[in-house]
Amino acid sequence: MHSRENPSEDYKKLLDEYIKLHTKGNKKIAPDAMFSGISIIYYLRDLQQIVRTESCKSILDYGCGKASLYCKDKYNKLMIDKNNNTLPKPLPEIWNLDYFALYDPAYEKYNTLPKGKYDGVICSDVIEHIDEKDSDWVLEEIFSFARKFVFLTIACYEALKKFDNGRNVHVNVKSIEFWQDKLNILHKKYPYLKIYTALDTVIQDKNDKDYGHFKTNPYIIERK
Q1: What is the CATH number of the domain that holds 77?
Q2: Tens of pLDDT along 8-58?
Q3: What is the rounded CA–CA span in Å between residue 60 and residue 192?
Q4: Which residues, at least 6 apart from 213, have a Cβ–Cβ distance to it below 8 Å?
């Protein structure tokens, strides 16, 4: 069994790759723009409602990248829609949080694992980047930080990006049903949490006007 104390060799190698991408970028993306934390924009409306519904005053963003939307000097540098709009304020101010924490093991500024508990834990565009050998302990760790809810987005399709060795950056692509089963089992250990999940797939119907774009498939597990 792998764990935080005993991750797989693949976890270590993947972490090294992401550290390099954060610090050096690649041919298409500069270091400052690499993993800026922008993927969360697709779920901002849902998150706003969840934070309000759950009376949430503290958040941990697990796998936050550079967390630009949380930062007072960066939040208005990223476009959040096709109309080139930006956030009016950093996310912690929009959500009226008392405190928040940011964690990403591949980014030096946020690579210290936080302590304590948070009303909600957000983990967007992370799990599919972690090899199956390590996804169980990572999910367990995410759940262990939450008091009220966990919000997960998981891509169920291969990414356009690849590592230099040709491996797809989505190293852990599974079906919607696979993740539903895994989360249901995990929830038995954390029945007091409400689990909000976006299991994203790619639209395959060529007759669909959104062919080739991703589609969000919500999956919610109620607290007991």
Answers
A1: 3.40.50
A2: 999 999 999 999 999 998 888 899 888 999 889 999 999 999 999 999 999
A3: 18
A4: 202, 203
Nearest to 153 by CA among 190, 108, 183, 198: 198
Q: What angle do CA 72, 73, 75 make, to 5 degrees?
A: 65
- Give the span between the Cα atoms of 83 and 196, in whole angstroms: 28
Residue labelled with tokens 């948070």? 118
Q: Residue 73 is encoded by which pair of tokens?
A: 């000097």
Structural domain boundaries, residue 156? 26-221
Answering whether pTM is above 0.90, one says: yes
Q: Which tens digits make up the pLDDT trace of 85-142? A: 999 999 999 999 999 999 999 999 999 999 999 999 999 999 999 999 999 999 999 9
Q: Name the domain count of the chain.
A: 1
**Alpha-carbon span 19 to 35, nearest angstrom:** 11
Q: Is 159 helix (H, G, I), strand (E, B) or coil?
A: coil
Rounded Cα distance, 178 and 185, in Å: 11
- Residue 144 confidence (pLDDT) above 90: yes
CA distance 159 to 177: 19
Contact 139, 156 (CB under 8 A): no
